[in-house]
Design goal:
mainly alpha; 4 helices; about 0% strand; transmembrane; DUF3618 domain-containing protein; DUF3618
Length: about 100
């Protein structure tokens, strides 16, 4: 069987430069895959997610209290904190009702 350039497929398939190029391509793909897996494992790590949530909460509180914060950031932070407080209060009421009755 011959390829489009006139060489046989057996010659093309087993040449050392071709094998070296394929091995380099596989090695590059492995490195890229390893980097992707590392990035994904960092993203889904519960400790990293918890730290991001804590940092976000601190930032919200700081923006809500900081008079130097931009007005839209301060308003957004206060709204988010008010909604979170309301949800927490509703959950607390639900837990108390469930425990009592």
């Amino acid at each position: 069987m011959s390829t489009h350039d006139g060489t046989s497929s057996d010659e093309t398939r087993f040449t050392t430069p071709r094998i070296a190029a394929l091995e380099a391509e596989v090695a590059l793909s492995r490195q890229q895959l390893a980097a992707t897996v590392d990035a994904l494992s960092t993203r889904v790590d519960p400790r990293v997610q918890a730290q991001r949530a804590v940092d976000g909460g601190r930032r919200l509180v700081q923006d809500a209290r900081d008079p130097d914060a931009l007005p839209e950031e301060r308003a957004r932070a206060r709204t988010v904190l008010a909604v979170a407080g309301g949800v927490a209060a509703l959950l607390a009421v639900g837990v108390v009702r469930r425990l009592r009755g």
